[in-house]
Automatic annotation (TrEMBL):
It comes from the Bacteria. This is DNA topoisomerase IV. GO terms for molecular function: isomerase activity. Keywords: Isomerase, Signal. Residues 1-19 form the signal peptide.
Length: 124
């Protein structure tokens, strides 16, 4: 009987929690994205303004246009794609923000496959 009473209370407290969404703080600036591939740490640095994102990965720089769908969602499209895969637009959605970082979800536009990551803002 105690478990039945505790469950609604837990659900009530969980529903009161709302993730932080200060997406406007991350529309522009310099950022760092760290992730792991096959046990190896990879780092991507990028700088973004309202309409352009310049990304540097493993010594190579690439530029993409940005089209903001909302304060927390935008579409990236490479300006100089080198193959068919790079011609596809990528949907980026900021899920939560916390201080100088945000958690996001991304995937190719039109695809159900999504991945998540966390980005840290290193300067304005």
């Amino acid at each position: 009987m105690k478990k039945i009473i505790l469950l609604p209370l837990l659900l009530l407290f969980a529903s009161c929690y709302q993730a932080e969404h200060n997406c406007k703080d991350f529309k522009t600036g310099k950022f760092r994205f760290e992730y792991e591939v096959n046990g190896e740490k990879k780092v991507t640095l990028f700088e973004r303004n309202d309409s352009i994102e310049i990304e540097t990965f493993e010594g190579k720089t690439d530029t993409a246009s940005i089209r903001w769908v909302s304060d927390c969602e935008y579409i990236l499209r490479k300006l100089h794609p080198k193959n068919m895969a790079e011609e596809k637009s990528i949907n980026m959605k900021i899920l939560t923000t916390s201080g100088k970082s945000y958690t996001f979800e991304f995937g190719i536009v039109g695809s159900d496959q999504k991945q998540k990551g966390t980005v840290t803002k290193i300067s304005d």
